[in-house]
Amino acid sequence: MFTADSLGVSFRDRQVLKAATVWAKAGQVTVLLGRNGCGKTTLIRAALGLCRREFGVVQFADRVYERPRLSTLARRGLFYLPDRGLLSWRLTVNWHLRAMSQSVRHPLDLGSIAWLDIESLRRKTAKKMSGGERRRVEVGLALLRRPSCLIADEPLAEVSPADRQRVAQGIRELAGHGCAVLVTGHEVDDLLDLADIVVWMVGGTTHWLGTPAEARSHAQFRFSYLGPAGAPTGSGGAHPI
Prior knowledge:
Layout: E1 2-11, E2 14-24, E3 29-33, H1 40-47, E4 55-60, E5 63-65, H2 70-75, E6 78-81, H3 93-104, H4 131-145, E7 149-152, H5 161-176, E8 180-184, H6 188-194, E9 197-202, E10 205-210, H7 212-216, H8 219-226
């Protein structure tokens, strides 16, 4: 459904991405892992046309884009959830729901996402909500949008354990409806529970690790990223494969 193929990005004299590739398949959750600063967000932004890249192409819904634009991809069914929040800071949840209803051109069925408990937040603005509440609303909007592809950059960051479970449930529900999902983050246990496929970014490129069980058993991934306790070892540089 979605592939960012061999993308290269440099900032000044530093090459951040060296032919990095990632994809999302219909009905599956691909999790992209890597240390802070390794280029996960850059890869996503470059794939969506939000930052300059030097080479590489994007394929989405059977079309190849040498110069992708987020607006074009969104019209074709892609939903992007950025790491810094999707909601307008001073507008209410009600406003966002009305805007989504107009966009999809049908009444929104809030009963289908009642478990996200958005009803109690409808009069609030994003500025007055917690990080977990904002993420619940954002995932609710994604569910109501019914996208063919969701790209979510760190959707579980700074979210309470209870809200994290609900956000993860929403992502899994989207995949269950056939949506292709690509997710990044550092909440390793939660993300590996969520994942169907794991991709590791290190040294400016990406490595397919397979299923979560295969990723956990990958010796270099464990040594360089998970560490002996099975948790990320920090935000410094990683050893190349």
